[in-house]
């Protein structure tokens, strides 16, 4: 009788010990899952996705100083793209020039006014001339502020009978301004001028 009672008591202790261990394991596992879920949730909240051309691209936060060379290069590239990519359509010209002038100061506006006064844009329209530009290189000096840049590119001027290839070299400075929808990089081109713009080759069509 005493032996049976002792066996029952021992079995109860084993069951109690097992139950406590099982409960402790469940608590530990639950806490681990909750902690991991919190970590993943925090990480996901710090991620930003940008939709570009139908694809979701992940963006990462970084200090502006880490991105200055990349952003400055793209700013200069996009300015030249908008300023020199033209078609024989007044609305296209105005749209591109307007985008370019948001990225630069009055030095670019003066060049635009000079070209307009000399009938450059009206000649594009009347002559059915398109103009394209491709970047060759951009040099940015971020050691001294405002940042000096030099742009080298190739222009293609497409006329009904010929295609002219011209080299283009410009220079200027970049200073920081507030970011906006019209100026996503937060730079403004100053003292912009053309150093060289000469024919390289002319092809008959």
Automatic annotation (TrEMBL):
Keywords: Membrane, Transmembrane, Transmembrane helix
Superkingdom of this protein's organism: Bacteria
Key word Transmembrane helix present: yes
Keyword Transmembrane included in the entry's annotation: yes
Regions crossing the membrane: 12-35
Name of the protein this chain belongs to: Conjugative transposon protein TraK
């Amino acid at each position: 009788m005493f032996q049976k009672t002792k066996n029952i008591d021992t079995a109860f202790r084993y069951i109690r010990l097992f139950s406590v261990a099982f409960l402790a394991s469940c608590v530990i596992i639950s806490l681990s899952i909750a902690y991991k879920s919190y970590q993943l949730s925090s990480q996901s909240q710090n991620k930003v996705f940008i939709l570009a051309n139908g694809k979701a691209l992940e963006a990462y936060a970084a200090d502006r100083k880490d991105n200055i060379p990349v952003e400055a290069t793209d700013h200069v590239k996009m300015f030249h793209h908008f300023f020199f990519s033209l078609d024989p359509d007044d609305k296209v010209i105005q749209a591109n020039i307007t985008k370019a002038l948001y990225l630069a100061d009055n030095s670019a506006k003066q060049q635009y006014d000079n070209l307009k006064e000399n009938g450059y844009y009206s000649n594009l329209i009347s002559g059915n001339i398109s103009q394209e530009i491709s970047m060759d290189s951009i040099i940015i000096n971020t050691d001294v502020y405002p940042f000096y840049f030099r742009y080298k590119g190739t222009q293609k001027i497409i006329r009904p009978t010929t295609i002219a290839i011209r080299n283009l070299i410009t220079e200027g400075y970049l200073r920081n301004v507030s970011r906006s929808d019209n100026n996503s990089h937060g730079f403004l081109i100053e003292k912009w001028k053309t150093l060289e713009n000469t024919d390289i080759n002319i092809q008959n069509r």
